[in-house]
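WARN retry 2 of 3 for item q-0093 after timeout on previous attempt; input resubmitted unchanged.
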Amino acid sequence: MSRERHTEGPAIGTLKPTKPGLLVLDIDEVVLEFIAPFERLLEEMGARLHVDGFRLTGNVRSISTGTALTGHELDGITARLYEEQIERQPAVPGVLKALESLSSLADIVFLTAMTPSYHARRRTLLDGLGLTHPMIATERSKGGVVAELAALWGGPVVFVDDLPPNLEAVRRSVPEVHLVHLMANTVFRPHLPPLPPGALAAADWDEAEALIRERLAVA
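OK item q-0093 returned
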């Protein structure tokens, strides 16, 4: 399954379009909850998230001392969350129903920047939710990956992500792709950097589904 050091999942060239349209979805905060499970794990470890800006480093502090956790410590906590994701990360509200409906209009591919070594755990989690669509976990730029995917499909392509920089990377690589921003948890929304030109914001999966349907209808 592995074809390069920093990517796990099916090779893009092996994916076979079954519908003209394509929906490419980030996973954390789009399909699976990340921030709320991360906060619960922090509490278990004696720390708490204080959202003073669009970052984790410096915003996570010890409950007992008030000292900010280092980037290395945060990396370790994130790794534990991914190791235990099957038990810790539930589906974002509304996503299962929305994707069941949207799958009749477009092929769906999951694209995550999660450390590729956790691909098997996440595959098990998604399959258990009935989300059996192909998944690529990569440390590559999402712009390059979406460009390769878009080249295989003949119709409209929609990309959904919670991070504006990833939306911008896709816009620069494939300007014709429709961009939708969705961040399930609200705590970081006031601190988000600006969305790239043309990107549309959805507050939840009801709004996201409506926006995606409109874009998939553009032939």
